[in-house]
Write a structure and sequence with these properties.
The complex is a heterotrimer of chains A (about 325), B (about 300) and C (about 325).
Chain A: H1 2-18, H2 24-29, H3 35-45, H4 51-65, H5 78-113, H6 118-131, H7 135-149, H8 161-191, H9 194-201, H10 206-243, H11 249-258, H12 262-290, H13 292-302, H14 313-316
Chain B: H1 2-36, H2 38-55, H3 57-60, H4 92-128, H5 130-145, H6 148-159, H7 163-190, H8 193-200, H9 205-241, H10 253-261, H11 269-296
Helix pairs in contact in B: 1-11, 2-4, 2-11, 4-5, 4-7, 4-9, 5-7, 6-7, 7-9, 8-9, 9-10, 9-11, 10-11
Chain C: E1 4-14, E2 19-30, E3 35-39, H1 46-54, E4 62-71, E5 74-75, H2 81-87, E6 92-95, H3 99-102, H4 109-120, H5 125-138, H6 155-167, E7 173-177, H7 185-202, E8 205-210, H8 213-219, E9 222-227, E10 230-236, H9 237-242, H10 247-254, H11 294-298, E11 304-307, E12 310-312, H12 315-318
Parallel strand pairs in C: 3-8, 3-9, 6-7, 7-8
Antiparallel strand pairs in C: 1-2, 1-4, 4-5, 9-10, 10-12, 11-12
Helix pairs in contact in C: 4-5, 4-6, 5-6, 6-7
Classes of the chains: A mainly alpha (about 325), B mainly alpha (about 300), C alpha/beta (about 325).
């Protein structure tokens, strides 16, 4: 399922860059060139062929050589640039998501188990406000407050741990509200279930009930939204990295955008979309580990079980 | 024969009247539920104030959003310039109002496009099922795999900046979402008996979709669109902020913010006011959308 | 001594605009080994009463306003929540209505039974697992199935697992909230038989909540009829079934299809139960009652004894109008 989707993504992204206005060859050559130079450059960029041929060769190069195309302006291959920059963006993203999870989920749980309390109303209101603050607006405001006015934190680069605070916080921020609301909603849904009442009527302690019985049942929607926040954090990196001058994929794409270097932009979109696809795949696999109902579906399909899961064994056994 | 027809017509009219009565009370219920929701009303008020501000912009300010005045650069808020002036000496309040026009216009167009196209795809997939559904759904899967902001960036990078291009770029990402919602709703309604009855009486597919199915998708569509307008305003500002979207000198909140960023160390009004307007508008639409969802579908409420 | 004695239990739910009077001044008694049936329509406050005994009312919005719940002489409403937890599952356990959702979908049935044993019996995890298998066997499920998840069982089997959890620590009181309502009719009887059998074996008392008078007739020793948060008639099974007095009880009997009598149609009770957030003054049933008079409107009705061990909340009965 992932492969065809990725293929579709490649086709869409490639077609977009094919539709780009302007002549990339003359853009790349700059002012003053001969027809021979032009043809040579066109051939070098592979732009002298038809759409289908270009698409096929793009796909082949991508699959066999991880070749993401050529920048209009730089001779450094795009994939080399991206590979060099990926770790920083990935680290930033991971920290960001970790922070989102660490803040969003506990707050959502508190909000749900204290439903109707002042805490719940307060957190819900805060989440509503947070959801209205775009990442870039927050980054700017943080820069003004902590960097310019208070001078507590450095604003550029990632040299020391202190440098990481603002970029990580601002890339985590937009996801926190969503994570909190989602946790609260699913948690409320779950604690209303009869099996939570059963757990309570067993005499279990409230924290055991929340962690062992309720939280585990919330995991599927939570894993889904954590997967979704990967997409959000990575696409937000264009803005966050740019504001804090971090040399990651985001700034690379930003430079591509500002110089109309489409292959760079497209390659960035492609790589991030791939990461998102793979994350979605991992999320699907995780489901099976979390939920035995899904595991059974896979289990019966892959290995032949000794007896059918539900019927008729159950039926013969009285009731 | 003729009398029979007249009688039937009358019965139909009666039934239509009944339907109207039912519909009326339904919407009255929705309104009653909405009016009970304080945060929803707050959202509504915020949105209405924003719309009034941008609609009556020419009456609210004496300045021209393009009028530059070199000596008046970087003025702090005063009674003459309530929000101060920008790096070209233009009145910031005026630029905020006109910038809002651009943002709202783009957001509404983008939401409208994605709602219409999403409805077409979604209802076709949900109603016909089978191969049609498979093809459309796979296509939507692919669209969903590209993060919305990135897709918008890619499209506007290709199309270049400008209000119409931005609206188009943002609408593409929204299609998949609205199509999914419509598809799910249609599939849920399709199994209802009155659809079966309509089919049995030989109504044509298109008529069934238009008469019986689409009206039921209005509620989820309204909720999704309200949320999506807020999201689009965020998207436009984001695109303008990275140099896509709307370019200066056209006033737009995100691009004003982006320019203001260069003067962040010495002059705060150029960042703070656009930031406030963006946040307040999105906040209003989110509150409104939440309240509409609760009012239109009480089952979803926690 | 009575095992359980509820005195004047009143439970309200404070909603945004109004207060729902779910349970009003309910008093009940269960003797050791006895089964009390609590009968009424949906929304009468049966489940709230049961949850109140377990102190499982969600607060807010729910609140136990007043009353005493004496279990073996100790008021459950006065003990600490830690003490209450040591009673739940150990001395009093509860079975919920819907077996489909009463089991945690992501834990094996063995784990879910062992959990309560491990918690209360101070035994090792292994012993608890061992005993959970014994419990499964007791409720008629092959012990090998302990490692399976709830979705691998049918509805009736799930309810057996729920019963195994409830009885795992041999409680003194079992509260069963419509334990068979969600099951197929054929399976209902099997589950009920099994419950009765196990209850006798373990000498457990039971509070059986149901709206099915047939189930009551087969299972209970005493019956309390509940209407709009109040007990309207209360007595031993025999007395109440042979001599039902309250117009509502009569109505309940009237709406059971009878094969003996040659009736063409059922006699359902007309109307609906009053809104529990706006209960009428006087008799709560009077608007649906064929015998209502002006007096019913004015006076709060009290439970009056009409024969030893049989009380009715109706002035017309006490006044002799309905006697005969």
């Amino acid at each position: 399922m992932v492969i065809p989707i990725m293929l579709g993504v490649v086709i869409i992204v490639f077609s977009l860059s094919f539709l780009a206005p302007g002549d990339p060859v003359s853009t790349a050559l700059g002012e003053g060139y001969t027809q021979e130079q032009y043809d040579a450059q066109a051939a070098y960029m592979g732009l002298d062929k038809s759409y289908i041929e270009q698409l096929v060769s793009y796909l082949v190069n991508l699959v066999t050589k991880f070749d993401l195309g050529k920048s209009y302006f730089s001779i450094i291959p795009i994939e080399t640039e991206l590979a060099a920059r990926f770790p920083v963006s990935a680290m930033l993203g991971l920290f960001g998501i970790a922070l989102t999870v660490l803040i969003g989920i506990p707050l959502g749980i508190f909000s749900a188990i204290k439903q109707y309390s002042v805490l719940d109303y307060g957190l819900t209101a805060i989440a509503m406000i947070m959801a209205a603050i775009p990442g870039f607006v927050l980054s700017i405001l943080c820069v003004v407050l902590f960097g310019v006015q208070l001078r507590w934190l450095p604003l550029v680069g990632l040299d020391t741990p202190k440098h990481w605070i603002l970029p990580v916080a601002t890339s985590a921020f937009p996801g926190i509200a969503g994570m909190m609301r989602m946790t609260r909603t699913t948690m409320l849904e779950v604690i209303r279930q009869d099996y939570i009442s059963t757990a309570r009527s067993k005499g279990l302690k409230e924290n055991v009930i929340i962690v062992k019985h309720a939280l585990k049942n919330c995991l599927i929607p939570l894993v889904t939204i954590i997967g979704g926040s990967v997409a959000m954090v990575l696409s937000g990196s264009i803005i966050v990295e740019n504001i804090f001058s971090i040399r990651g994929i985001g700034t690379y794409m930003y430079s591509g955008i500002s110089s109309s270097d489409y292959p760079v932009v497209m390659a960035g979109v492609l790589v991030i979309s791939f990461v998102v696809c793979i994350v979605n795949l991992l999320v699907d696999i995780l489901y099976a580990f979390i939920d035995p109902r899904i595991k059974t579906i896979y289990g019966t399909r892959m290995t032949k079980r000794k007896k059918p899961a539900v019927l008729p064994g159950a039926a013969s056994e009285v009731v | 024969m003729h009398g029979h027809l007249v009688k039937e017509r009358k019965e139909l009219d009666l039934r239509a009247l009944e339907n109207m009565a039912v519909k009326k009370t339904l919407w009255q219920d929705v309104l009653a539920r909405f009016l009970k929701n304080k945060s929803g009303i707050a959202g509504f008020v915020i949105v209405v104030i924003m719309i009034l501000l941008i609609l009556f912009a020419p009456l609210l300010t004496r300045f021209d959003y393009d009028a530059q005045s070199f000596p008046d650069r970087f003025l702090y808020p005063s009674s003459l310039h309530p929000f101060g002036t920008d790096n070209f000496g233009r009145d910031l309040f005026t630029r905020m109002l006109y910038g809002g026009r651009i943002s709202f216009m783009i957001a509404i167009i983008a939401t409208f496009i994605s709602a219409v196209i999403g409805t077409i795809f979604g209802s076709a997939a949900g109603y016909f099922g089978g191969v049609v559904d498979t093809i459309i759904s796979r296509f939507l899967d692919i669209m969903m795999a590209i993060p919305g902001l990135l897709l918008a960036i890619a499209i506007s990078a290709v199309l270049g900046p400008g209000p119409i291009n931005t609206a188009f770029a943002l609408s593409i990402g929204g299609i998949a979402m609205s199509a999914r919602i419509i598809r799910a709703t249609v599939m849920a309604i399709k199994t209802n008996e009155y659809i079966e009855a309509a089919k049995a009486t030989g109504s044509r597919n298109f008529r069934i979709i238009r008469k019986h199915i689409l009206p039921n998708t209005i509620a989820p569509l309204i909720v999704n669109s309200t949320m999506s307008i807020g999201g689009s305003i965020m998207g436009i500002a984001g695109l303008s902020f990275i140099g896509l979207g709307v370019k200066p000198p056209t006033p737009e909140w995100g691009s004003i913010l982006n320019v203001g960023r260069d003067y962040i160390r010495d002059f705060w009004p150029m960042t703070v006011f656009p930031a406030l307007f963006i946040m307040l508008t999105i906040f209003g639409f989110n509150l409104l959308g939440d309240a509409l969802r609760d009012a239109l579908d009480p089952r979803l409420k926690d | 001594m009575n095992l359980l004695e509820i005195k004047g239990l009143t439970i309200h739910y404070a909603m945004r605009a109004n207060t729902v009077h779910a349970v009003n001044n309910v008093s009940l008694v269960i003797e050791p080994g006895q089964t009390l049936g609590l009968v009424g329509e949906t929304g009468a406050g049966k489940t709230t009463t049961a949850r109140g005994i377990m102190r499982l009312i969600q607060t807010p919005p729910g609140k136990i306003v007043s009353g005493e719940i004496l279990f073996e002489g100790v008021d459950l409403l006065k003990i600490s929540s830690a003490e209450m937890r040591s009673i739940r599952g150990k001395s009093i356990s509860m079975i919920f209505q819907d077996p489909m959702s009463a089991l945690n979908p992501i834990l094996t049935v063995g784990e879910q039974i062992a959990e309560v044993i491990h918690l209360h019996e101070k035994c090792s995890k292994r012993e608890a697992e061992e005993r959970s298998r014994e419990m499964l066997e007791m409720v008629g499920i092959r012990p090998e199935r302990a490692g399976e998840y709830p979705h691998q069982f049918s509805g009736g089997m799930k309810q057996r697992v729920v019963i195994a959890i409830a009885l795992a620590c041999s409680p003194k009181l079992l509260i069963a909230d419509e334990p068979t309502t969600a099951l197929d009719v054929t399976i209902q009887a099997q589950v009920l038989d099994m419950m009765r059998e196990l209850k006798d074996k373990l000498n457990t008392s039971m509070l059986l909540i149901t709206h099915d008078l047939g189930v009551v007739a087969e299972t209970c020793d005493a019956v309390a009829i509940m209407y709009a948060g109040e007990i309207v008639e209360y007595g031993s099974l025999e007395r109440l079934f042979h001599n039902p007095k309250h117009p509502y009880t009569l109505g309940l009997f009237g709406s059971i299809p009878s094969l003996d009598k040659d009736t063409d149609r059922l006699n359902p009770i007309r109307g609906l139960m009053p809104d529990p957030s706006a209960l009428p003054k006087g008799c709560k049933f009077r608007e649906r009652c064929d015998y209502a008079c002006d007096e019913c409107r004015k006076e709060e009705q009290s439970l009056r004894e009409i024969e030893p061990g049989h009380t009715v909340r109706c002035m017309r009965v006490a006044g002799g109008v309905l006697n005969g």
